[in-house]
# Entry
Amino acid sequence: MLWLPFASLVVLVQEEAPGRTPVASRVVGQSIVQDLDDPVRVDDIEVRGRRGAARVPPDIELDGAEIDALGAWDIGEVLKRMGETLGVGEEPMVIINGKRVANPGVFYGFPPDALMRTEVLPPEAAALYGGAPGQRVVNLVLQRRFASYDGRVAGSRPTQGGTSSLSGDMRRSAIVDENTHQLGLRVSHDTALRADERDRNLPGEGPEAGAITLRPRADLVSANVNLTRALGEWSAVFSLNGQTRNTRSVARLSEGVVESRRRNDSLGGSVGLSGFMAGWSLQANLTGQASRAREDGFTDTRNENRSLGLNATASRTLMDLPTGPIVANLNGNLMESRSIIDRDRIHTSTDFQTREGRGSVTIPLLKANPDAAAGRWIGDLQATFGASVRETSGGGGDELNGALAWTPRKGVRLNGVWSTSSDSISDIQRFEPIYYGAPRVVFDFRTGEAVEIAPILGGNPDLLPPRSRRLALTASLGPFSSWSLSGNFGYHRAESTDGIGSLPDLTEDVEAAFPERFQRDAAGRLISIDYRPMNLSSSLTEGVTSSVNFSLPRRTRVGENESTVLRVALSHSFRIRDTVALLENLPGLDRLKGDGGGVSRQDARIMLDARRGRWGVNASANWRDGYLTRRVSGADGPGDLVTEPFTRVDLKVSFQVSSSSMRARQDGEDASPRRKVSGLQLNLEVENLFDARPGAHLGDGSPAPGYGRDIQDPIGRTVRLTLQRRF
# Structure
């Protein structure tokens, strides 16, 4: 077996010997576990709790070799890769060493080998740690001792040329028990991609169009400092980060070609505390953020944003039942922000406040009884009920939710989540300064041609609070056998009224519903589209998802360098329904049939992570089904846009010049396995390996304007070489 999904304690019998340090080592299946905390002696028996163990056994566990196989630069990339391959989700709750901390983000910049293991907990764990119902929880277990200096230089360039990117990273990381620090610096430079460096052949382009930038020039400098300190029964976290980014782009507006320069400077920090008081587990985090932006060219805009927020969580066991503990969770959030905007000599200042409170109670309804035949099949049943209220400058909101988690037997889990809410509106959605984004190509059904437009982005102060209802059902199986085979199947349904989204794809129906969002010149040529957030009268989405994961059985011995790791993940999504009503007096549009901007009915992905000794391979293939965008809703026609199926393959190959190894060290009572990484590592990445480009044709079979090789995707295949070294 690759991991211990259900083991949290081990009992070791050892004889006392003068001058000898007891070392705990546990082998389960085919994996070595040596991460036990200090022992508690009872007569001649030492009971050791597994270091960093969570409140519930994990569904999936990755050891050090499997973490290395992900090919990540830092823990943040580890979490991203796990979300893609293990079905963790986009925003899991992250805990550290089995405990919730005030700000887990302070650990994301550490190198992957600072991790001893990672665990994906079952869905019911979210309620035990104060997360939202159905939210997955990832437990990051850190090494007890760790120190490193790491550097990385990366350069990339499309095989077609025309633009390039160069970046450098440096970091210092250290862990001593509960005290950690991490410092990082990043510098990057991206050259611009001009229109005359690609063959686009868009109608109406004059000689001046060659100066338009398809990708802007960008320069970035960022730095961060993260610290954690143990304060008796409490722990403190501190984070400080700063960034400056400069971009230069050229776009064509109605008055001609315009150059725009934009600079963004930001500084943010946070201070947090975690600990226990009067039976409560408490976390509090104070954050501050200040940013300044300046744009010259498209618009003359100056804006400043300042914010200060406090987030606090509390949880405790209210009482113990024969079926388990009743757990209560409370969360409060306070936020104050100010936005100052000077645009076209008009000065505006806006204050924004947020007051939010959440609460939930988790009740264990049933507990499996292995001694009774009925009890073995009844299994464990857990219910969670929660509510929240919000008051903001953009309006109030509330939410009611509930969740059921049933484990009828080992390796089988069924979960259901339901919620109904009225949401407030964020300050970014309302008050973000208006600006022109990078030019994009759209197909104009009115003229039957593709045109390049300047998109208008930013906030919309006229937004209305949305209301929504959600239902999600999931079934999880596994892991089974030595291949650690696991699978997931899910059903989801979401309805919203006045839901906030962006403007749908350009069709005649969409332009007729929102004519003020489309700008045309005197000749009728489309020159700009307003993509700022908007309210959609109603929408309904419904679909199913499925995934399968497995890994190659392997043996790992301490000090072995030739351990083979192979993990494969397959996922598929199928949309049953996707409808939207743009305005209250308009009929609903079936987007799966091509009304109001079409969407793909299904997509699939396969991902592979492998490592053998010094070599590593990470690959992914993403497939999207084709779809139809109707010119006129309700009927197919020869002028419709038929987007063709699209597949993209990415490949990364890495070689460790000095190989990494896993070894046991006997530093007092610490017998944790440590991976030793040193020397130089080379990474060769090829994005879009086969240089695939989005394609389309019209309903009558003729080629679709605006879907030439370099129009929708002017970059195509990109090769990146990375040199990474530990000093």
Residues 598 and 629 are 5 Å apart (CA to CA). The longest helix spans residues 75-85. The first strand starts at residue 9 and ends at 13.
